[in-house]
Amino acid sequence: MNAIGKALWFIESHYARDISLEDIAETAGLSRYHLSRVFGLTTGFSISGYIRARRLSTAALSLAEGASSILAVALDAGYNSHEAFTRAFRDHFGVTPEEVRNRRHIGDLDLMEPIRMNTAPLPRLDEPRFEITPAMLMAGLQQAYNYGANAGIPSQWQRFNTHDGSIPGQIGHAAYGICTQEEGQDSSFQYMTAVEVRDTDDLPEGFESLKLPAQTYAIFAHRGHISGIQATCHAIFSEWLPSSGYQHAGLPDLMERYDERFDPRTGMGLTEIWLPVKS
C-alpha cells in the first residue's frame, strides 16, 4: 500500500474521531507538508475537505434513518452546536438536517463515499538527474485552483502562449508550470504559467513574478500525453520521495518544464518535473 493508500485507510478508520494531520502523516510516512500536497494531487480533494465530506455523509445517513437527536448527530460529526452543524450541512448538501430526517431518504444527496485507491501500478520512474540552480526569477500568469477543479489550466496556458517568446527580459525558450501552496491552505494551490526573466520591467498586463531560491532539483521525465502527468507526480511523491533519503525543499511544490521536446498542439512529448530537494 502506498503512502496515500495508507492515509486513506487511516482516515476511514478514524474520521469519526478528532484526528490530526500529524496522525495521518505519521501513518502515511510523509511529512505534513508532503501529505497535504500529494493528497490533493492524487485524490482531487483536500484532507480537511475529504474528512468533512465523509463526516457529513455519515450524518446524512443517520438522519435519513430517523435519528432522534440532531444535536447528537452534530456532535458525532465534530460540530459543537446544532447551528454550526446545520450551516455546514446546508452548505454541503443544499438542504437542512431537519429536511433529511423528515423525508427519510438521501436519494438526491451527493454523498462522499470512501475513496478507493486505484490498484493499477503507478508509472515506473526513470532515475532522476540532479541539478543545482542559481536563484531564478519567473514571470507569468498565476491563478488559484481548488484540488479536483483545475480544468482551467489548459486555457491559462493558451492565454500565456500568446505572450511566450515576446516577454521583455525572457531568458531562453523553456516554459514552466509552477505549483505553489500558501502556508496553512490545503484546499487549493497556485499555478503559474511562466518563463524565466532577467527582470520584471515592462511585463505584460496581468503578469506576476516569483523568485525561486538557489537550490537542488531532482528532475524526472514524464513521457507521453500530458494528461498522465498526475500519475507521474503521484509516483514521485508517494514512492520515490519517501524512500529517497531526500526531503522536499519548500518552494515550489513542483515545477513542470516544457521545451522543444514537448508539442503543445498535441499534448505529447517529454515534460520534465522538477522537485526541489534537500538532504
Description:
- This protein has 279 residues and is α+β, with helices and mostly antiparallel strands.
- It has two domains: 3-103, Homeodomain-like (Arc Repressor Mutant, subunit A), CATH 1.10.10.60; 129-278, Regulatory factor, effector binding domain (Multidrug-efflux Transporter 1 Regulator Bmrr, Chain A).
- Helix content is 36%, strand content 25%.
- Strands 1, 2, 3, 4, 5, 6, 7, 8, 9 and 10 form a ten-stranded antiparallel beta sheet that branches.
- A hairpin with a 7-residue loop joins β3 and β4 (188-197).
- The mean pLDDT is 90.
Poorly predicted regions:
none
Provide the structure class. alpha+beta
Gross morphology: elongated
Q: Which CATH class of the largest domain is shown?
A: Alpha Beta
CATH fold-level assignment of the largest domain: Multidrug-efflux Transporter 1 Regulator Bmrr, Chain A
Q: How many structural domains?
A: 2
**Average pLDDT over all residues:** 90
User: How many DSSP helices?
Assistant: 9
Percent helix, as a range, is 25-40%
- Return the string of H and E elements: HHHHHHHEEHEEEEHEEEE
- CATH architecture term of the largest domain: Alpha-Beta Barrel
Largest sheet: 10 strands, antiparallel
Distance between the termini: 25 Å
> Based on DSSP secondary structure assignment, what is the total number of beta strands?
10
Q: Which band does the percent of strand residues land in? A: 25-35%
CATH superfamily of the largest domain: Regulatory factor, effector binding domain
